[in-house]
DNA sequence: AATGAATGAGAGTTCATTCAT
DNA sequence: TATGAATGAACTCTCATTCAT
């Protein structure tokens, strides 16, 4: 699964063959089918793992008792941390979200998570006294998505730390 | 090329066969190879077309003699307009930017365009008297990217007009 | 289709690979899929051909205006002729009738044909004044089936001509 | 072996995997290879068992001291009994007899048995005073084969009891 | 005696590409 | 210019068989 994630994320799902995965992982092609019924099955297993590992990280600290500013900062830091540590998971998920056939599977689980984050943002901005908390939430949410997109495609060449630091300074201090 | 773009964008490059394109376009498989040396070649031709049609739209009005605020609004409107009218182009480009092997080709042309926009933003924010014009430019640029990402994957369910309106109101009025 | 029939009939459907057929027929594996969507499709095409060519031969002369004895002889001769000239078709069909999954397809077309023959026999025996025409029909029908079975599996070593001659002499003279 | 016979007869040899047999029989795949060197070996063992159990049944009562008519009836009854009680064995054997590569193995043992029956029939018909005892033997033998074929492929829908009863009445009473 | 993880050859199938027409 | 029959490499997947335990 690790090798698969690695290859799926860097070369794309359809661009990665089972043979390739098996050879890279140092096992036989046949063995893969002892653990996963199909290539799609393997993908699903990886995505499920990604959800449990990453999506949870993003939402786990949201109900802490801090000030709205601190909460917002925590979420941003959390997104940043997840993005850096689980970049392959997110790269894969984002890439798949462009494929019509994979969408159905992703939508089911991905959408609620996204909406939960937007709701958190909205609540926080409301507590911070903003006039249009929902719109502000969408702005910041979009900002984080855009930041992620750039980091995922460009990688370390994208000055993610400086930007996120500026974002925090802008909204939380 | 039109049919190819349509299919590549909705079904994915690897998920679309030459036969499929030919049949949809109403020509023979063989004829395609009179105009394009390979499937990759066809993709490159489409991407080049996409650049000429879309990327240009984004940058064309930047040297107009308006106020910085008006210039910023114009760029945002331009991005919005392009996103809506050339959504297939951008969907394809963005989806491909996740694949390591396609990156080389894209990077070459895509990066300068992106940097040009960031520079425009930076100049504008400097003229508007912002303290950290570069960082501010990255924020707004990221915001537009995030907005685009959401629109490309979610589609009309994403309230792109309301959000972009709010963005303009926030920065330009 | 000719090569496929040959191989399916002698080696069995599951025992014959597409590669084998293609190589024997002197074409590429890929070409097979220009004409047949799948191996099953190929089999169906062959079986349909078999029906049109053979089953028809068996029933075509049944409404001739001869005496019952002559009619019976004609049917027997027809079966014999078909068996000898289309032995591969019948070998394949009979072999398949043992496979649970092929049965559905075969039953649909095969059963009516069989019943038609039994009915012809019954009518003939009734006209010939037999006491139990239906039972007699089943006997002769079974006899022909058994004769076919032996001829299909043993081949020329089975004295089919002598036996059918005796059968005719027994019932028709 | 029991499970294998069951599966081979109903689903076909090539359609039945070792895994399937092992799972159905409740043992491990590996264990099967402690008792049989290969899948072919397993098939041979089953076929040998089939011969010992079934073919013997058919011939065992032939040298009884009854009248020819009674002997003939006994053989027919025996075939009928065997067919009904060992239908899976015969189904498998008959299905295999269509495959060129299995033939060699089957021919060796099957042919003598068949010829023995024909000889018995011939002797009986000679004792009964028939003019062409050998031909008559072939007719009745073929009749039994045809009856078996129909019963094996159609199953209970084939009126085997009525037909065999009529056959007995025809020749033995 | 018994297991099942592991292998690899080979199955059916797809598809980018070529080329005679 | 235009076709589509033909190819062959590569794909996903299956399964008989082996072997360390």
Any overview of this molecule?
- The structure is a homotetramer of 173-residue chains.
- With 173 residues, chain A is mostly helical.
- Chain A has a single domain (44-172), classed as Tetracycline Repressor, domain 2 (Orthogonal Bundle).
- Chain A has helices spanning 2-11, 18-25, 29-35, 39-59, 68-85, 87-96, 100-127, 133-154, 160-172.
- In chain A, α1 (2-11) crosses α6 (87-96), α5 (68-85) runs parallel beside α8 and α7 packs across α8 (133-154).
- The longest helix of chain A is centred in the middle third of the chain and has 28 residues, at 100-127.
- Chain A is elongated and about 60 Å long.
- The N and C termini of chain A lie far apart (41 Å).
- At the C-D interface, α6, α7, α8 and α9 of C face α6, α7, α8 and α9 of D.
- The structure holds a DNA duplex (21 and 21 nucleotides).
What is this entry, summarized?
Chain A has 173 residues and is mostly helical.
Note the main attributes of this structure:
homotetramer; 173 residues; Tetracycline Repressor, domain 2; 9 helices; DNA-binding
The portion of residues forming beta strands of chain A comes to: under 5%
Number of strands of chain A: 0
- Which shape of chain A, going by the Cα principal axes? elongated
The structural domain count of chain A equals 1
Query: The biggest beta sheet of chain A, please?
Result: none
Radius of gyration of chain A: 18 Å
| Subunit arrangement of the protein | homotetramer
Order of helices and strands of chain A: HHHHHHHHH
CATH class of chain A: Mainly Alpha
Low-confidence stretches of chain A: none
Total of DSSP H or I helical runs spanning 4+ residues of chain A: 9
User: CA-to-CA gap between the ends of chain A?
Assistant: 41 Å
């Amino acid at each position: 699964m690790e090798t698969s994630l690695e290859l799926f994320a860097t070369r794309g799902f359809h661009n990665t063959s089972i043979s390739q995965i098996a050879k890279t992982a140092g096992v036989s092609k046949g063995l893969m089918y002892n653990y996963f019924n199909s290539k799609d099955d393997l993908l699903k297993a990886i995505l499920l793992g990604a959800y449990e590992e990453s999506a949870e990280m993003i939402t786990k600290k949201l109900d802490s008792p801090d000030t709205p500013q601190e909460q917002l900062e925590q979420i941003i830091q959390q997104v940043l941390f997840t993005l850096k540590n689980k970049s392959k998971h997110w790269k894969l998920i984002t890439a798949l979200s462009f494929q019509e056939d994979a969408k159905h599977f992703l939508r089911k689980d991905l959408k609620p998570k996204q909406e939960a984050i937007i709701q958190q943002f909205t609540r926080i901005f409301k507590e911070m006294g903003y006039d249009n908390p929902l719109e502000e939430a969408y702005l910041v949410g979009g900002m984080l998505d855009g930041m992620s997109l750039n980091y995922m495609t460009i990688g370390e060449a994208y000055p993610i730390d400086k930007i996120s630091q500026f974002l925090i300074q802008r909204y939380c201090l």
